[in-house]
Design brief:
The chain is an alpha+beta fold. The protein contains 9 helices and 8 strands. Strand 1 and strand 2 form a beta hairpin. Helix 1 crosses helix 6 and helix 2 packs across helix 5. The chain starts with 12 loop residues before the first helix and ends with a helix.
């Protein structure tokens, strides 16, 4: 939605909390899909969990015949059936067990979560496009300050503030047809004048201010530059629906292209972002370009969650769906021992990936945020 030229500092608490809520809604909505379809099919749900059941349980309460709980590992969620507990007293032949349901009912339960995520993501993106407009793919030809590093940075001492628009440097107007070219020119001027004072004119609100700043030895002044996204108004809801579908289709294609680069070694594993990195990125987007950019990121994540969960990976919805498709073809279920073994291995692999991604997040966000 916009181009950042530096990793931003941790955003204000309000924006971080907002993104945490957005991501939590996606997880809960996914599990609610499984939950309601399972209940509709007459399947007994033992537990509805937000987060994964590792470490302490932060909150737990039984409402009716379902236990609702929140776990400390807020990386996902789950719906537990009687089948998941070998010691559950429910009779083995009970129709309330998932495994005793007709194939179509089990299939409906498994696809419910991804269906909810796909619909939620599409609807959210459609609302954003209709309310704010469609991102044109171009930035407005303005170079803005997205943030100032800290109080000791040259920019802070000179009086620069987030939201300032750079108008000129040493009486040379900042202008051009290409945003990135303008940014490179600004960076070049800072580097050329390392340790020498320069005059910078900024527009703050409707007032123009002249500031004097001295770049450090590296030729930087401690600001984060950001583009201002241009949005084009849509002609009608039909136009909005078409643009939404096209936009999200492109997102899905790019996601698979990214996985292709990952498996061919063109993209490093350390570039994978987890919940901490996503929340940080979304909070920075909200701070700089408004809540609509955070909502757009949330919509994109919702659709990507739907697509990724459909992949035939054991322990994910797609793995269960894959076994159901095999059952539909061969006319009988895959042996329980085989399913359990594959699911166990898949879960171990998924857990290892979660730990790796969380490690990436902690390193990139807290230990080495400038990498």
């Amino acid at each position: 939605m916009y181009e950042l030229l530096a990793i931003p500092d941790i955003s204000k608490f309000g924006s971080i909390l907002m993104m945490l809520i957005f991501i939590s809604v996606l997880i809960i909505a996914h599990e609610m899909g499984h939950f309601f379809v399972a209940r509709k099919c007459g399947i007994k749900v033992e537990r509805f969990g937000f987060g994964l059941p590792f470490g302490p349980t932060l909150w737990s309460k039984k409402i009716g015949d379902v236990e609702y709980c929140i776990h400390a590992c807020l990386f996902g969620g789950y719906v537990a059936f009687a089948d998941d507990d070998p010691e559950n007293p429910l009779p083995k032949d009970s129709p309330e067990r998932f495994e005793n349901q007709p194939l179509l009912s089990r299939f409906a339960v498994m696809v419910a979560g991804v269906t909810v995520n796909a619909i939620l993501g599409w609807t959210l993106m459609f609302v954003v496009f209709m309310a704010w407009g469609y991102p044109s793919g171009e930035a407005e030809r303005r170079v803005m300050i997205g943030g100032v590093a800290n109080a000791s940075a040259p920019a802070a001492q000179a009086g620069f503030a987030k939201g300032d628009e750079l108008k000129s440097i040493n009486n040379q107007t900042i202008a051009g047809k290409d945003y990135m070219a303008m940014v490179k020119n600004v960076q070049a001027v800072f580097k050329e004048n390392a340790t020498r004072p320069i005059e910078v004119e900024v527009l703050r609100g409707k007032q123009t201010r002249a500031l004097t700043v001295t770049p450090n030895k590296a030729g930087t002044i401690g600001i984060q530059l950001a583009a201002v996204q241009r949005y084009d108004a849509l002609k009608s809801p039909v136009d909005g629906a078409v643009k939404t579908s096209s936009f999200l289709g492109t997102v899905i294609v790019k996601q698979f292209e990214a996985f292709g680069r990952l498996f061919t070694g063109q993209m490093a594993l350390k570039e994978l972002a987890g919940p901490i990195g996503i929340v940080k990125q979304g909070a920075a987007m909200i701070d700089q370009n408004g809540i609509q950019t955070g909502l757009m990121l949330t919509a994109i994540i919702s659709v990507i969650l739907a697509v990724m969960n459909l992949l035939p990976i054991p322990a994910l919805d797609g793995g269960h769906i894959f076994f159901l498709l095999i059952e539909a073809v061969k006319g009988s279920p895959v042996k329980q021992e085989v399913r359990e073994r594959f699911t166990q291995y898949g879960f171990m692999g998924l857990l290892a990936l979660i730990v790796f991604i969380l490690g990436n997040d902690v390193y990139n966000v807290f230990i080495n945020p400038g990498s």
